[in-house]
Amino acid sequence: MNKIRVMTIFGTRPEAIKMAPLVKEFEKRQEFESIVCVTAQHRQMLDTVLDLFDITPKYDLNIMKHGQSITDITNKVLKGVEDILKTENVDIVLVHGDTTTTFAGALAAFYNKIPIGHVEAGLRSDNMYSPYPEEMNRRLTSKLATLHFAPTNGNKENLLRENVEEKNIFVTGNTVIDALLSVVKNDYKFSNELDNIDFENKKVVLLTCHRRENWGRPMENIFKAVKRLAISNKDIQVIFPMHMNPVIREVATNILKDLENVNLIEPLDYEPFANLINKSYLILTDSGGIQEEAPGLGKPVVVLRTETERPEAVKAKTVKIAGIEEDNIFQIANELINDKKEYEKMARAINPYGDGKSSKRIADHILQFFQK
Length: 372
Known about the structure:
There is one protein chain. The protein is α/β, with parallel strands linked by helices. It has two domains: 4-173 and 356-370, Glycogen Phosphorylase B (Rossmann fold); 203-348, 3-Layer(aba) Sandwich (Rossmann fold). The chain is built from 15 helices and 13 strands. The protein has helices at 13-27, 44-52, 70-85, 100-111, 134-144, 153-161, 175-183, 217-232, 246-256, 270-279, 289-296, 311-316, 326-338, 340-347, 358-371, and strands at 4-10, 32-38, 59-60, 92-96, 116-119, 147-150, 169-171, 203-208, 236-241, 262-265, 282-285, 301-303, 319-321. The strands form two sheets. The protein has a seven-stranded parallel beta sheet with strand order 3-2-1-4-5-6-7, with helices on both faces. It has a six-stranded parallel beta sheet with strand order 10-9-8-11-12-13, sandwiched between helices. α9 links the parallel β9 and β10.
């Protein structure tokens, strides 16, 4: 059999983290020829992940431009990927998750009648505007995909309800666990201001907050709740790697500055960030991926959103949804900081997102698809 020519398309740091183990899996198998196309929807943050996992893209669309709209991104990715697909003889295109790169890349493959594999398929919040535009990117990609690689059985059920054929759905776990386990080290040493944090004697609370739907009053509520936590619990140390967006930085600085036990730091590369999760006591986040990663390291997660497209994490009790109201966020986080019994329930819950072998399963399923 000729080698299966697989093109992986991704453009943001989260996509790169989750696709990197899969790219490495293809590279070590003689049945595959791996072709990597990045859109650079994120530029610097993407490049650090490529360097970490030693991945050299064959194609780089380099579309990032300050202030560009979702429409701008869609147009650039659609045209750029189509131009590549007209010159490359590709057997299958793989996209990941729910970004604009994902949807536009899948659409370009569809227009060229190339099979599409959707990694991390079947997640649903059932609110088309939250997360925005990710929820609809993911749903539309499901309509275009040939093969659906669902992290959990719940994700598979979502796809079945939308009339996706069961024979085309494969439950694989989430590749983010593959990536996470490859970089976390218990003896990891930070090379920045985190090296001065007393991880042994302080309960470190890691905060991430960037979602578009949280801009404005919700974000103010979140930071006010964090401020109350820091003032009420002198034994915690809050670390917030601030998103580069000036809207977020301004609100965070106005509310959280001058608090002795709050560190506002620059964004971290993936390796130090993953190890920071491992060394933290509790995670407060509006991110999707961290809801999968942190439980893999036994870290409870408080979700700073009103809903999540990862309900299996809620069911497994590895995460709690706190919403976007100050009092509720404070109460839930404060209980986990001070009630050891409640904390241990979450810390010991089994992560529903896999065992670190998802990339192998996905490669196996693609191989079987072409052998048939």
